[in-house]
Amino acid sequence: MRYILFVFLFLFAGCSTKNYEHTQTKIIIIKSPKLKFADVGYIRNTGTSVQMELFVAGQAIEKFTINHLVCTSEGCMSKEGFNKEYLSAYYPDDILQHIVLAQEIYEGKNKQKTPSGFTQKIKDDHVDIEYKVQTKSIYFKDKKNNILLKIKDTQ
Question: Is the distance from CB of 138 to CB of 25 less than 8 angstroms?
Answer without folding.
Answer: no
